Amino acid sequence: MTDQQPEQPVADTAVDTEQESQVIEEAGAEEFYQITVNLPNKGGKVQVIASPREAIQDVRQSIVESTETCIHSCFSLAFNGVKLNDFMELGDVEGITPDSELDLVLNNYTEREARIHVNRLRDLLAGPAKLNVNAVGIDPAMSFLSTVSGHVEEIPVDNSTYETAPTTVFSKFDVNASAALSDFVPKGLERTPVQCVKSIALSGWNPPPHHLRLRGDLMYLIVTTLEGETVQITSTATGFHVNKSTSNHFDPTPRQDSKAASDHSLIVLLEKVSPMFATNFKKLQEFITRHHMLEVLPVTTAQPAYPWAIQPAPHTFDPTRPSEAYLNYGTDSVDSLRDWNDELQSHRELPRTNLQERVMRDRFLNKINADFADAAVRGAMDVVNGNVVALNPLEPEESHMYVYNNIFFSKGFDGRNTFEKLGGDDAAHVATGKDLEGVRTLNGVDVEGLYTLGTVVVDYKGIRVVAQSIVPGIFRQQEESSIVYGSVDNGPQVKSDEKFHEILGQAAKALHIAEHAVEDGEGKSTNLWTSFDTKGLMGADGRRYLLDLYRLNPVDVEFLENDIAAKDNIPEYPHKLTLMRPELMLLFWEHKLRAWVQERALEIQKRAEEKKALEGDKETKETKEATAESSEEKKEEEPKEEAAPSNPEDDVNILDFDLSFNVDAFTSVKTPADGADAKTQQEQTVREASKFLRENVINVLLQDFTAYVVSPIDGGSLTKAMHRRGINMRYLGRIANLAKESKGLALVHIHYLAMQEMVVRSVKRIIRKAVRGLPTTHIADCISHILNCLLGHELNANPIATLAQDGYAYALFTPESLRDAIQSEVLLRYRFELPENFVKNIAKEKKVPLLRDVCLRAGIQVEARDYIFSPLSESTTPEPTVAATAEPVAASGKKAAKQDKADKNHDKQSRKIAKSKKRATTFEPSDILTLLPLVKQASTRSTYADEAFEAGKTSLAQGHRQLGLELLLESLALHEQTYGFLHPETARCYQALAMIYYHADDKEVALDFQRKAVIVSERTQGVDSPEALHNYLNLGLFEHASGRTLTALKYLKHAIQYWDLIYGKGHPDSSTADNNVAVMLQSLRDFDTSCVFFERAKATQELAHGKEHTNLANCHHVLAKAYALKGDFETSVKEEQLAYDMYLKLVGAEDMRTKEAEVWLSELKNTAEYTANQALYEKAALEQQAQQLQQHQASHKATSLSAAAAAAATKAALAEAAIRAANADAQVGSKGHLSLNELMDYINSQPQGSSAGGKGKKSKAQASKRVQKK
């Protein structure tokens, strides 16, 4: 019997979803306030739209960030003459209404407010691409959307109005050329804003003397204006003024001459002092507003994405940059010192009785977790760089512990031999990741009274560092251990606190963890919910903390027993800490629940049938003398039984289902003798889950790959697809083997991608081991040498490290030894033997995709330039393609020509420089720009935001469009409040809403949401992430549907170039993008280029599906129409013949597609015949005209008129004959007599998407569907 979803849980879920929807709708039904703010000094009024649940400080922040009011930062808001508290909510202000007016009241400055004001000015002057001195890498959170579009908003145009094809970004595009890495950063990226001043710096006269502090002096500034004048400025409690000080003379009092100026705002003061500042500041604001709002906002609640290939901006002189720590945190940096643990736990204890309280709580938790992660990353880098002194400096370096910025740091090594029997350092490395996973899981359960530590894992320079918040009292010397639950000393003593056990029981029920008995060293039995290794600790603050959560899931026993040991030339697996993932445990629990419901339903049905049979027998034995009244009563009872629920699953109570997992099963933990039977049963459950992973889940994933339900484009998307289904990465080798054994074309790229991912992960481990312990000066040389051995062996078969003379181990690598090391690592980690020369071949075939994956996995940022991988590549460097920011056809020819000339000169100069600097190797140490920390954090999720999102999707799927849309909009509001605008989860909402509005034919709203999705995915997931790429493809579709095809083609070209860099050519999904490009070009009458892209889409489908598939037949059919529009009827007939033959063979003669292809084939043959005849007629006419001209060449001038008349008469006769032939052909169905416009109208009017336009719509729908699934 096949698995079915049980009815009872579905019904419960539906009720819960409806109730949640009502709660969310009620919470979202609040009206927004449109507040009018009166500016001081007769500055006018501004409008601010805010929610009544927003705090006053949020309204203030909106005013500060507005271009109209950015000059103010130190002010309060007043209502009816009363200043408002910044921390109260807008709706709580007494007497306020949605259209009330507030007054902006200027406040006196404090030192802190003065520092904030100066920082605000520096942020404005730096523009959108402000250099972040605290960033751990180069160019964090980049977005290219405005650059790709060219900062030009195209006016919608009806493409049918074009008489000839306009110039597009694909006009000179070489389909066969590979994307150039030097074009990774689009041309035209504006990094440098308009300069307003030469410099703003802290004066050397700081800090103010004590007697001047009493007069209100806060700090002194020195400004050099664009006019070349140096101005000394005093910041006081009342504002800023130009003082009399010089470099040699100190006098902070206001000047009294013509240069005297003062104002509450430093910006206004500078406008008074420097006319050029006033002019350029307006230009700067215009420059900033040309960018989308989300391109300018800082990323504060998520880890910013760092591009792996960059073209860094030149370093600039800024005398104030070293003083940013003072401007941000003050003289003693007290503002930067935070009690992270107390903040984390206090935010967890916030009330959550209603939706608004939960949203605020989730918002604060996300912000504090993001701040903690940022501080932890910088602290971990300082630990690795040796800038922090260890607490235990006398112990081995692997055992060192550190405290920095109120965060506890330790290294991911087995310094205390805790994992000696499980694999030592390898097991300890895995345990840190699993501990983080356990923290994330428990945070998701969110049990009141149970606390976890803030945890971040950082991999930097080959060392794994674990950062944790500090439990109060953990470092105090106490007589008794503060551990009250679990193993105190790894075995001899086990404790169990009653209250701890009770609270843990709530979490265990949600996580399906079984209570089990363990035996300590003295033979005493103790019941535990968690693993023997997990420790419950009572902090000095009275809170109960759970530590060491790496065993929150059971052991993958099938892998442990079958794949750990060495066999068949495969070495022993490096560790025994092979645990299952939480996603798998949930999948297995749901699988067993479905089976249990079906089993109980069958039992209920069987009992009902037996009862019915018994009642039938009893009725037959009854005496015939029964009274008529009793027989009538029986007849009335029978229908009642028949009216019972027809589906027996309705009677199943899922609360009776009990399945839990013993996390200590198949470990060395001792079990009491009286618990042997329970242990055996629990071990059997764990074994079933392990088999379910190997025999079911992996096969289902391969089925999804075959059906293109999931189609990963790179190793990262493959990893996400596996983790989402609970598959560990150690099964990559098994997936590769199964994909190869299936021999299906749909799994060819999966097989290749799995092997590529194994190679990349092995190279990452090799690099991590090589750079560990290296001096900083040698890291770039080490990485460049390994990359040369991996990717540059064609150019130089024997690369030598630049600093090889220093004798470090990495210098001993050769291309051959590196390939051997990769083969060994793959065999060790993934139990998979790579094909012979695979590493060498993939380094030839996919150089840039392999380089990209290695850089992303190892945290390397390289220079974006065209690397020379082989001796031939220098002479065969492809010509640079047209920039994605090419001017639209409406641009002036002079400007376009000037731009083309500049681009050509730039490219010529680049090639000249490249030739003048011939390299001995592909990579040099100078190409390695920095090494990034790789960060993993236990980020929290908003339950209500996720539930609203899923409820909206469910309503849409059930056909309730209005309800679904309202729920998704409420979900978006919850996401923006909880996560902020710049977060991957918010981008997911933007994308879903854009697709809904697009299908509802509300194109402009769809475009607005889709642009936001593009920017957020670029800045938080990477400019070349698969998510950003698919968002660009969808944005192109939406722009085309809105009549902005030229802009749409820019986005599609940008996405196609990145696709080439990510994967290379031939990915199954790339045919959809090529089809969409071809359809757009066809609508612009660029038929030649459209045919090129249709051809490439056909070639991709042939690679993915083989030479006989309905998808390929569709490609032939569409291509035939494309060639017909082009006027190449001969090729069109060939393509349609192939389509017809393929349809006939695959779907039969009665299928609509076959009949349609047959009609088209007949029409195209007639048209081709007519075209050939017309060509013969025209040729004959030209030959006859030429003969007549030759006969009359020697004639008198007077006879030339009669010759011309004769030629005209002949041509007219031939034209009449051609018309008769055309009419004759038209009677038999030919369309060759139609004009081009009529022919396009005829093709586009064909039903069932038979035209190129219809194919385009189908491609759009397919692309949209695919993006939604991803």
Structure description:
The two termini are 31 Å apart. The protein is globular. The strands form 6 sheets. Strands 2-1-5-3-4 form a 5-stranded mixed beta sheet, covered by helices on one side. Strands 6-7-8-9-10 form a 5-stranded antiparallel beta sheet, covered by helices on one side. A hairpin with a 6-residue loop joins β17 and β18. The protein is built from 40 helices and 25 strands. Among the domains are: 33-107, Phosphatidylinositol 3-kinase Catalytic Subunit, Chain A, domain 1 (Ubiquitin-like (UB roll)); 184-329, 2-Layer Sandwich (copper amine oxidase-like fold), CATH 3.30.2280.10; 352-469; 715-870 and 922-934, no CATH class; 1107-1201, Methane Monooxygenase Hydroxylase, Chain G, domain 1 (Up-down Bundle), CATH 1.20.58. By secondary structure, the chain is α+β, with helices and mostly antiparallel strands. Mean pLDDT is 84; it is low at 1-30, 634-645, 873-916, 1196-1207, 1209-1236 and 1247-1270. Pfam families: CLU (PF13236), CLU_N (PF15044), eIF3_p135 (PF12807), GSKIP_dom (PF05303), TPR_12 (PF13424). May associate with the eukaryotic translation initiation factor 3 (eIF-3) complex.
Rg of Cα set: 36 Å
- Spatial order of the strands forming the largest sheet: 2-1-5-3-4
Distance between the termini: 31 Å
Morphology: globular
Please report the number of helical segments: 40
Main beta sheet strand tally, sense and closure: 5 strands, mixed
Q: What low-confidence regions span 5 or more consecutive residues with pLDDT below 50?
A: 1-30, 634-645, 873-916, 1196-1207, 1209-1236, 1247-1270
Helix content: 40-55%
Question: Based on helices, strands and strand pairing, what is the structural class?
Answer: alpha+beta
pLDDT averaged over residues: 84
Beta-strand level of the residues, as a percent range? 5-15%
How many DSSP E strands?
25
